[in-house]
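Exercise 7. Given the encoded structure of a 135-residue chain, write a plausible sequence.
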């Protein structure tokens, strides 16, 4: 898989407002805005870190994957997201290599991106996202 960069690191939070305040006001990171990602049942906030980002994730429904994660683990790092140029080709390559996929087809992520997750059981306990930037 040809990774271009770490697009973002996802952090599960209970309150977006409190966490934005921590990262923006106390840690001094540049806040880029919030967005609801309906397909993933989360509201996200992005903070810029060089060419990469921190993505804060707050669940928007009790059956959101992030709600389940928070219930089980509390707040903390939820996933790593690697940017690729061609997500369809990357998924085909991973499938051919028999890597366990959560999403066989790309879904809609924030900023018009296309995203897909690999199962954490196949990636050493780290939930891994691949994403193709939106244009
Ligand atoms: N990181 C590492 N391991 C994780 C994990 C995570 N974020 N989430 C779940 N797991 C582990 C659990 O600890 C559990 O392991 P054990 O069996 O050893 O206890 C196992 O995976 C199964 O977890 P579960 O709590 O029973 O939850 P589910 O199987 O129902 O769902 C997962 C887990 C990863 C398949 C599901 O959360 C998923 O499909 N995630 C992808 C989508 C997503 O997370 N969207 C939110 C972000 C969207 C965005 O960034 O826009």
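Solution.
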């Amino acid at each position: 898989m040809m990774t271009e960069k770490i697009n973002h690191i996802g952090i599960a939070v209970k309150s977006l407002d409190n966490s934005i305040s921590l990262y923006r006001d106390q840690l001094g990171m540049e806040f880029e805005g919030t967005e609801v990602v309906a397909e993933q049942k989360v509201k996200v906030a992005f903070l810029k870190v060089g060419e990469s980002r921190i993505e804060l994730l707050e669940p928007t429904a009790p059956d959101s994957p992030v709600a389940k994660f928070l219930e089980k683990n509390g707040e903390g790092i939820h996933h790593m997201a690697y940017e690729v140029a061609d997500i369809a080709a990357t998924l085909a390559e991973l499938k051919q290599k028999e890597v366990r996929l959560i999403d066989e087809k790309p879904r809609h992520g924030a900023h018009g991106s296309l995203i897909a997750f690999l199962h954490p059981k196949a990636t050493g306990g780290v939930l891994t996202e691949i994403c193709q930037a939106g244009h």
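Remark. DSSP finds three helices and eight strands in the chain. Students should compare their own answers with the one above.
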